[in-house]
Amino acid sequence: MNQEYLQGLSSDMDSPEDAVFFKATPHNIAAFLAAHRWADMSAIGTVDEKTFLTARMGLIDICPDQEYLASKIIPAYAPCLMDPDKTMELETVSKEVAQSAPCPQPDWNYLRWDGYSDEKYQAIQSGDGLLKLPWDGKTIFLDCQVRSYYNNGNLALLLQDWNNGEPEPWGDLTVNLGTSLDQDCAFVDVNHLGQEILPWLEEEGLATPTGRTQQSGFVAYPEYRFNGEKLAKLDSEGYQSYVSLRDSFHDHSSGMSMT
Residue 31 and residue 34: Cα distance in Å, rounded? Predict the structure, then answer.
C-alpha cells in the first residue's frame, strides 16, 4: 500500500459526492467495510479514483494486493466478520486534506476491474507485454487486447497506448465484416490505420497475410492469420475467451447444418 489516503464509496450512499476519505490504514479499511457491510457493493480506491478493492454485502470480492489483504486487512476485519454487530470507528479526513497529499501510481493491479489479469499487468509494467510501433516519427508502446465480435465469434484486436503510463485507446487493429473466419484470422482495418500497419504486423511476428481480401465500400480489407501463441502471451485471458466463444459459434453452426 503506497497511498497516504484512500476514499470509500458504497451503493447505500445517495451519490458519489458522499464518498468518504480516510488515512490508508488496515483499521480504516476494515472500519469502512464494516460500516457498509449490508450494501450490495462497496469500493475503496485512491483519491484519484483507482480501485483498490471491492466488496459485496461486506465480503471482499476483488483485491489484487493479496499479500496486503492477507497480512493486514483480514486480521483487522476478521472480528467484524465473526460478529455482525461489531462496529469500528472510521477516522475520516476532509476531501481537501486527502487531495493535498501526493497520489502515486498504485503498487497493485488497479486495472483488474478493466479485465487486466495480474500476469498481463505485470508484463506491461516490465515492458515485456507491450508492442513497439514506429508511428509518425516516434515509438508508441501498445498493449494488445484480444476480444471477440459477438455476432460471429471472430477475432477482434484492440490497441491501447501506454506511452503516458496509463492505457488510452489507440485504435482497432481489426474490423468485423460479417464473414465467418477461420480461427486466428481477421481483417485488418487499413481504412483507419493505413497500409503502413501491414509490414509491422509481419515484422513483429503478429500475423501473416492469407492472400484474401474483402471489399467493403471503397476499401479492400486484407485478411491476416494472427499468431495465436503470441496473442495468448500478450493477453492470455482474452485469447482464451475468444477461442471459447468462437468454438461455441462453430458448434452451434455445425449443429444447425446437421438438422
Answer: 5
**pLDDT per residue over 233-258, tens digit each?**
999 989 999 999 888 876 655 554 43
pTM: 0.78
Q: How far is CA 39 from CA 45, 56, 60, 184, 220, in A?
A: 17, 7, 12, 43, 53
Grid cell digits, residue 212: 484474401
Residue closest to 50 by CA, chosen among 124, 98, 107: 107
Beta carbons of 11 and 65 less than 8 angstroms apart: no
pLDDT digits (tens, 9 = 90+) for 209-231: 999 999 999 999 999 999 999 99
Pairing of strands 138-148, 20-23: unpaired
Domain boundaries of the chain, sorted by first residue: 5-107, 115-250
Q: To 5 degrees, how large is the angle CA 8–CA 72–CA 123?
A: 80
With beta carbons less than 8 A apart as the criterion, state whether 196 and 183 touch.
no
Residue whose cell numbers read 509491422: 200
Name the CA radius of gyration of the chain, rounded.
23
